[in-house]
Amino acid sequence: MQARQKKSVNISTVFVLGILVFSLVPLFLKMDSFNLSNSFLQLNTIFLSILIEAIPFVLIGVLIAGFIQIFITEDHIRAWIPKNKFLAVLMSCIVGAAFPACECGIVPIVRRLIGKGVPLYAGVGFLLTGPLINPIVILSTYMAFGNDMEMALLRMGVGFVAALAIALVVSFLFRTNQLKNAKEHSHSHTRVKKKQPLVPKISEMFKHSIDEFFDMSKHLIAGAFVAAFLQTYVSTQSLLQLGETQFQSTIVMMALAFVLSLCSEADAFIGASFRNVFPTTSILAFLVYGPMIDFKNTIMLLSVFKAKFVVVLFILITSIVFLFVTLSSLL
Question: What string of pLDDT tens digits covers the 331 residues of the chain?
């Protein structure tokens, strides 16, 4: 087991270093000597900007995941989570709404919580609301739209209700936690002694956080690279031309949110730039959909959960967000 884990860490390290070298080397080369194309430089710039934006939140996420792994026991989880499904989902959505995390940093946290015994549906509620309607996101939305609370409140209200609905549907569709290597997660908890001095516990926490970071970072880098590739070589203007009706423009803005893979703390400023192009409903779809699911986040989810669950979750998020955003236009 240890040899296999060591091999996995080495492969991850080589993969991460390879992509980073590919991205960083052009910064130190004489551009005239290598005749690098503008599109390649743009790809490189977008890729690095996504990484720089996401990595701090991933680091915060893995530290919290390490804390949960060492200091939070199954008994704590059982005491905190209501047995009633609806109450459990409601509590997870409320906690997520108060928790400042982006869609990348929250994935390792949710994996640890579910591995510790949090029901899948409660984990999904936390996963969806954390990046979407936390205080930092609401404040940035308020500022991006000219200190106007309307869009911030719409984002918060529609996002919360949509997350609640998605998590409730998940509670009826899936009975197990849907984690990859679920047995490995369950056995790992027994290796940590409950009664242990604080310093060794903190050391174990950092060890788990480092392992978690390497496990998550390779998927983040892969997702960020593909997202940068799509932004570079897929014409945004051609997508915008498809949004003639409100139905089409909503689909286009959701597609843009998925492809651009923006951090939820900054996406409101991009969404606000489309105010003169698309109606409010479409921009709201962009702001609600992107933090729930985007390309880099999907890659990270596939590394944690079974593929069938991720596909179903993607369909649920897409359909329910579209439905709720459309209904909001009737209010």
Answer: 444 444 444 555 565 566 566 565 565 555 555 566 777 778 888 888 877 777 777 788 778 878 877 777 767 777 788 889 999 999 999 988 887 777 777 888 899 889 888 999 999 999 999 889 888 888 889 988 888 899 999 999 999 999 999 999 999 999 999 998 765 454 444 444 456 678 788 888 888 788 777 777 776 777 677 777 777 776 666 666 676 777 888 998 999 899 888 878 778 888 887 887 788 899 999 999 999 999 888 989 998 999 999 999 999 999 999 999 999 888 7
Contact 68, 109 (CB under 8 A): yes
Q: How far apart are the first and last CA of the chain?
A: 56
Contacts of 71 (CB under 8 A, 6+ apart): 201, 205
Cβ neighbours of 164 (radius 10 Å): 20
